[in-house]
Amino acid sequence: MSVEIALRAARVRYGPLEALHGVDLRIPRGRRTVLLGRNGAGRSSALHALAGTVPLSGGQVLWFGDGSPKARDITGLDAYRRARLGMTLVPAERAVFPTLTVAEHLSRLTASARGAAFDLFPELGRLRTRSAGTLSGGEQQMVALAVALAGPSQLLLLDELGRGLAAPVLARVHEALIAGAAAGRTVVLAEQALRAGTLGVPAPDLVYALHRGAVVFAGEPGEPALAAIVATAASAPSR
Fold it and tell me: Is 116 part of any domain?
């Protein structure tokens, strides 16, 4: 299958701590990929490395999303320029601008996209004039996801997208992501656990399991090796 974006031997450091130890990821185009791991595993660092919000201390980020048969090295591009290529990151924290209203967040979208955003999240209709900083965590998450899902980006990078969302709302989001992937959109989720089988969510196409900054599994979610790796990681002490 075609690749959208990739990490090659990627290393990320936060001061003296190396969070990613030479990680390789190949994200398939038009598919749903999950980066799986508990806190500290490196899944969020990998997602932010793809988006350009954290720099690499080693390795490369390769972009295939322009349809060219040859990869473009975008390691040196900042997050703003990567966003212009067609990627959107929704981080687990600080995903909205607290002083902007809901309507101001959605004003970046076209009129038809704003309509799609309110169709997906009708709860936001009564919150149009509220500043994002006054909203609950779940409401802020809906604002961030509304902009991402209704926007034009080809690549969606979503870190723990279910934070604060009620089950029916989360089910709606997953339905939208599945439809987007079916239409050719690439979705990458960073999660602590697979949601396959819950909320009617089908299994993702590809799973990377990370543990202590390294990839310990890459494959389909139904493979027995994944269950064993997840169980071992869950029982291992934190660093």
Answer: yes
